[in-house]
Amino acid sequence: SLNSLNHDMTLAEFKFIWYMEYSHRMWGRVVGLAYILPAAYFWRRGWLSRPLKGCVLALCGLVCFQGLLGWYMVKSGLEEKPDSYDIPRVSQYRLAAHLGSALVLYSASLWTGLSLLLPRHKLPETKQLLRLRQYAHGTTALIFLTALSGAFVAGLDAGLVYNSFPKMGEHWIPDDLLAFSPVLRNIFENPTTVQFDHRILGIASITAVTALYLFSRKIPLPRRTRMAVTSLLAVACIQ
């Protein structure tokens, strides 16, 4: 089925796809070594505290798990589906898991690194500060969910269904939003619903980031924290 679908592909086009996949795998292996080798060296030299050993083990385990998820994802795109005449593609569920795992790994690495490099600010625990922290955590969860919904868009080629914004074609809410049965299936398998959800989550994310920024302006915060919130707003706008 791969031959019949891509019969007009030139050797140069095939090489481009092959090298993209190959370099991604090789880069992933280099990342794995960049975690495991220094971790083994620092552990051997006794430079890691007990809590840090737990962090390092978790990060190295997550790197290995990420590679395993990548293999599991690619495998789903190579399986013959007798009832399908569509372009071979990986499972959107596995793609979302692979991306989600990568985001967790990246965030955990950054958090661990910054915790070691920068001392924590000792701030008075006011009600406003507690609310800001809770709101920041909520915004993080919303951004993570938006990114995961993007993996479903990519996995289903849902970005090709509608190319107008803010409306989807002629409608604010498309007709085929709940075309699949049962209803829950639409969220993960209906390209229209997947794109619609991604748009809603994207708008919600940028709204939450803007609100977080405006709320942070009312609180006396250290320069570093203020810079982080401003950078978050800037990146959200670029995105």
Automatic annotation (TrEMBL):
<dbReference type="GO" id="GO:0120547">
    <property type="term" value="F:heme A synthase activity"/>
</dbReference>
<dbReference type="Pfam" id="PF02628">
    <property type="entry name" value="COX15-CtaA"/>
</dbReference>
<keyword id="KW-0472">Membrane</keyword>
<feature type="transmembrane region" description="Helical">
    <location>
        <begin position="26"/>
        <end position="43"/>
    </location>
</feature>
<keyword id="KW-0350">Heme biosynthesis</keyword>
<dbReference type="InterPro" id="IPR023754">
    <property type="entry name" value="HemeA_Synthase_type2"/>
</dbReference>
<comment type="pathway">
    <text>Porphyrin-containing compound metabolism; heme A biosynthesis; heme A from heme O: step 1/1.</text>
</comment>
<dbReference type="GO" id="GO:0005743">
    <property type="term" value="C:mitochondrial inner membrane"/>
</dbReference>
<feature type="transmembrane region" description="Helical">
    <location>
        <begin position="94"/>
        <end position="118"/>
    </location>
</feature>
<feature type="transmembrane region" description="Helical">
    <location>
        <begin position="55"/>
        <end position="74"/>
    </location>
</feature>
<feature type="transmembrane region" description="Helical">
    <location>
        <begin position="139"/>
        <end position="162"/>
    </location>
</feature>
<keyword id="KW-0812">Transmembrane</keyword>
<keyword id="KW-1133">Transmembrane helix</keyword>
<keyword id="KW-0408">Iron</keyword>
<dbReference type="GO" id="GO:0006784">
    <property type="term" value="P:heme A biosynthetic process"/>
</dbReference>
<feature type="transmembrane region" description="Helical">
    <location>
        <begin position="198"/>
        <end position="216"/>
    </location>
</feature>
<dbReference type="GO" id="GO:0016653">
    <property type="term" value="F:oxidoreductase activity, acting on NAD(P)H, heme protein as acceptor"/>
</dbReference>
<dbReference type="GO" id="GO:0046872">
    <property type="term" value="F:metal ion binding"/>
</dbReference>
<protein>
    <submittedName>
        <fullName>COX15 protein</fullName>
    </submittedName>
</protein>
<keyword id="KW-0560">Oxidoreductase</keyword>
<dbReference type="InterPro" id="IPR003780">
    <property type="entry name" value="COX15/CtaA_fam"/>
</dbReference>
<keyword id="KW-0479">Metal-binding</keyword>
